[in-house]
Amino acid sequence: MMRTNEQLEELANNICDFIKEQVENADAKGVVVGLSGGIDSALVAYLSVRALGKDQVFGVIMPEKNSNPDDEKYGKLVAESLGIDYTVFDITPVLVAFGAGGYVEGKEFDKRVDSNLKPRIRMTEVYYHANKKNYLVAGTSNKSEIYMGYGTKYGDLGSDFLTIGNLFKTEVRQLASHVGVPKDIIDKAPSAGLWEGQTDEDELGISYETLDKLLNLMEKGKEIDDICEFLSIPPEKVGELMLRISTNKHKSLPLPMP
C-alpha cells in the first residue's frame, strides 16, 4: 500500500477539500481537534490547517495524572508547530468527581469501565469548545481502528466527520510524513493513553502493518485460507480478528431502531 509522493499529495488535497466541504456545508467557522500527542490527531491537525488556515483550527490537549507526560508535550508540539490556538484541560478532577477507580482512594482501576470514561470526558470537552466557537469536531479515528472497533462510543469515535477514516494506519504514517508531522510523533508507539504502558498493538494482539495487510486482502475478497497463507498467520488468529470485526460492527453503524 505504499504510495508515491504524487499520490500522497493528491490524497492530502482530496482530504483537505473534504474538510472544507464539511465546514462550509455546516455553515461552521472552523474545526476543533483533540490533540492526544499521537500521529492520528497530529495528521488531522496538519491537514485541517492546510485546508482552512491556522486561525480556523483549535486544539484541545487533555492530560490526566496517570497519562504519559510525553502526550501533552507532543500535543503542544503539534499546536505550536502549526501556530494554532489551543487549550490544556486536565481531566483528573472530572475522573475524581465520577469516583473513577485509580483516582479515588480505595477504588481499583477498571480497564473496561474507567478507561472508557476518559475518552468520553475528553470528547465532552472538545464539543464544549466546538459549540462555543461554532466549529465542527474533526474526528481522528483511522480505518484500521474503525474496522476493529478500537475506540469508545461517544468518546474518540464521536465527531462530526472522520477526517482520516478512509486511511489504514500504515497509510496514516505515510501521509503524516509527507505533510511534515514531526518524526518523533510518527515513530512513537501508538497508544490511546488509557493506562500506564498501554499500546494499541498490544491490545489488538497484532502489529498495524500485518493488520492492515489482512484488512486490505479482506476488502479485496480474499478467502481466509489465502490470507493465512499469504501473511503466514494461523487460521485461529485470523478467525479471532474476524470475530472482533463482526462483534464491534455496532460501533460504526447507525443506531438501531425498531
UniProtKB/TrEMBL annotation:
Reactions mediated catalytically: deamido-NAD(+) + NH4(+) + ATP = AMP + diphosphate + NAD(+) + H(+)
CDD domains: NAD_synthase
Swiss-Prot/TrEMBL GO biological process terms: NAD+ biosynthetic process
Residues annotated to bind deamido-NAD(+): 120, 153, 160, 250-251
Binding site for ATP: 34-41, 140, 169, 191
Residues that hold Mg(2+) according to the record: 40, 145
Pfam families in the cross-refs: NAD_synthase (PF02540)
Domain NAD/GMP synthase positions: 13-251
Pathway assigned to this chain's UniProt record: Cofactor biosynthesis; NAD(+) biosynthesis; NAD(+) from deamido-NAD(+) (ammonia route): step 1/1
EC assignment: 6.3.1.5
CC terms in the record's Gene Ontology section: cytoplasm
NCBIfam families for the chain: nadE, PRK13980.1
Function: Catalyzes the ATP-dependent amidation of deamido-NAD to form NAD. Uses ammonia as a nitrogen source.
Protein name: NH(3)-dependent NAD(+) synthetase
Species this protein is from: Methanococcus maripaludis (Methanococcus deltae)
Name of the encoding gene: nadE
